[in-house]
Amino acid sequence: MSKQPRKQRKVLYNAPLHARRKYMNVNLSHDLREDFGKRSLAVKVGDTVKVVRGEFKDTEGKVEKVDVKKFQVLIEGVNVNKTDGTNVVFPIHPSNLVIVDADMKDDRRNKILERGE
After folding, report:
1. Is 0.70 topped by the overall pTM?
2. Domains of the chain, with CATH numbers?
């Protein structure tokens, strides 16, 4: 893989959806890192995340939607008022998030953690 930023971006933007899902990983909080023995996990609906960069820094909320095609995560409580007065959920890039509480109801996610992938 190339070191050039333009080629790195090109690979990211032209990747198929199943490959893009792997790029949607979010760092874990320090407590969860010790518990799981991993640095990051794929973000999933139901996870509680904290915004660490941008306008909504230090805001926590549950993940409402993960948009793999646009590299966006929609979080409950991260809203913007539009000029017509309506409230819209503001999309956040996964690199600006930290998982505070992971939703471990999914068997597949538990198996991923067990095998250390």
Report:
1. yes
2. 5-115 (2.30.30.30)
